[in-house]
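Reply to dn_fold:

You asked what the input looked like. This is it:
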Amino acid sequence: YKDGKPVDHALVDAVILNDTFIGSRAVWDEDRIHQVMVTRGSPSSIGISAIAGNLEPIGVNEPKGMLIDMGSGDIDIIVPLAPGLIRPINNCRYRMLGIDEEIEVGYGPCVIALDGEREVEVGAEEKVSVKLTFDGPRVVKADEALRTAVARGYSKGPEALKNLSWLKEVK
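and this is what came back:
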């Protein structure tokens, strides 16, 4: 939110960076990270959500999130921030966030990276906050859905093509 109005959203993470420009979209340098808010985190994740997963895992459908402050605590962990890039995260602290909890970003100028895909620039005088909601899109467990489809025969034999009316030609 900027001045109380929504400007964008993130599904997994919002990362407040010490920068005013991201450059390449992925956030892999932990020294640039000031604060992190996540909706989920697993020890098996790779990326920003792995920080949460290595502190206190949060499942996809759990109605809570996590706020992580970098460089202002006493917890040290090791996290896979990218494939093949395992980094120490030192001196962090965290707390759980409840649904509809809003956190004021009292730090600027900065950039907020959203899911590593988009960014929101924050000026020094702007009032900005991040709010955890449970209003996002439904999550499909792709592996489970496809396994069920295969078990029911949706991908086998000539009858399978009838399930795909949007396909015009299969060779």
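The mean pLDDT is 88.
Hope that clears it up.
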